[in-house]
Design a protein that fits this description.
292 residues; alpha+beta; 60s Ribosomal Protein L30, Chain: A; Phosphoribosyl-aminoimidazole Synthetase, Chain A, domain 2; 7-stranded mixed beta sheet; 5-stranded mixed beta sheet; 10 helices; globular; PurM-like_C_sf; PurM-like C-terminal domain-containing protein
Length: 292
């Protein structure tokens, strides 16, 4: 199995975000042995300092990755670097190869199965916003709030959540990642060929994510969410209890339907999930270009 992720931004942690997307995406497919390599690119007008800082951060991360119960990760310490006249922002491209000890197959969820979610909607995006727009946040929020935002940095790596779910009887697992929870719900329906209904109020989201997103007029449910997964299971509550026993917070947020409708409930209000839109994180740079 191979997966590639590309993340844009000015933070020296773009490689970290890209790696998290690869690791989690592969774990959702059953991979438990992962090796990754990185390519860092910056706009041609930028100096070598940015590339040096990216390489330094990657090597530092290679020796200090979170430990997981069900997954082993190794990083190629040497990285490729490139200056490109086509880029407006620096970017990190991470490619990961993986093997799985158990073949879980493609998964064939059936109508009526319940949908579970682990992790928090938009948490990764909130962390990236905090790195990209720290001065704005520091002018608005107290230092204690910023510490609260940053405490979840390791939670964007969550391969155990997917692997424990698959071993625990989940019929499928899907990493949320880019496009946020709304995009992942649409993709889940596409993959299964079924409709679905989900309860917005049951989708886990941190209060600090809500506040950061409100400041930048960003929808947290359409914001990149590395470390967040959707799973399907015939008995969602039973799987939730297994995950909770393993220390993995999970919530049953909906179920698959026998038709093709993609329904989102918010109290008495009902709306239909639209086709995935561009990830909300892009708004940071769209507004920046408009102000120039």
């Amino acid at each position: 199995m191979i997966q590639t992720s590309i993340v844009y931004g000015n933070s020296i942690q773009t490689g970290r975000w890209a790696l998290a997307h690869c690791v989690n995406g592969l774990a959702a497919r059953g991979a438990d042995r992962i090796r990754a390599a990185a390519l860092f690119q910056v706009p041609a007008q930028q100096g070598n300092k940015e590339l040096y800082e990216q390489k330094k951060e990657w090597k530092k991360m290679a020796g200090n990755l979170p430990l997981f119960s069900a997954c082993r990760i190794a990083l190629e310490a040497e990285v490729q670097t490139l200056k490109s006249p086509a880029l407006l922002l620096p970017c990190a491209a991470v490619t990961a190869e993986a093997e799985a000890s158990v073949d879980f197959g493609p998964g064939t969820p059936a109508a009526g199965e319940e949908i579970l979610m682990t992790g928090f909607a938009g948490q990764e995006g909130m962390l990236r916003i905090a790195k990209e727009r720290r001065e704005i946040l520091a002018a608005r929020f107290a230092p204690s709030f910023l510490r609260l935002v940053e405490r979840g940095a390791d939670q964007i790596f969550a391969p155990d959540s997917a692997l424990f779910a698959l071993y625990g009887g989940a019929s499928s697992a899907l990493h949320v990642g880019e496009g946020g929870v709304f995009g992942a719900l649409w993709e889940l329906a596409r993959r299964t060929g079924a409709g679905l209904e989900a309860d917005l109020k049951k989708i886990p989201v941190l209060q600090e994510t809500v506040e950061v997103c409100e400041l930048f007029h960003i929808n947290p449910y359409q914001l990149t969410s590395a470390g967040c997964f959707l799973m399907t299971a015939p008995d969602g509550e039973a799987l939730r209890e297994k995950l909770e026993t393993a220390g993995i917070r999970a919530a049953v947020i909906g179920r698959l339907r026998p038709d093709r409708d993609k329904i989102l409930r918010n109290g008495e209000e009902i709306r239909y999930i639209d086709r995935p839109a561009p990830d909300e994180i892009g708004k940071l740079w769209e507004r920046e270009r408009q102000e120039e």
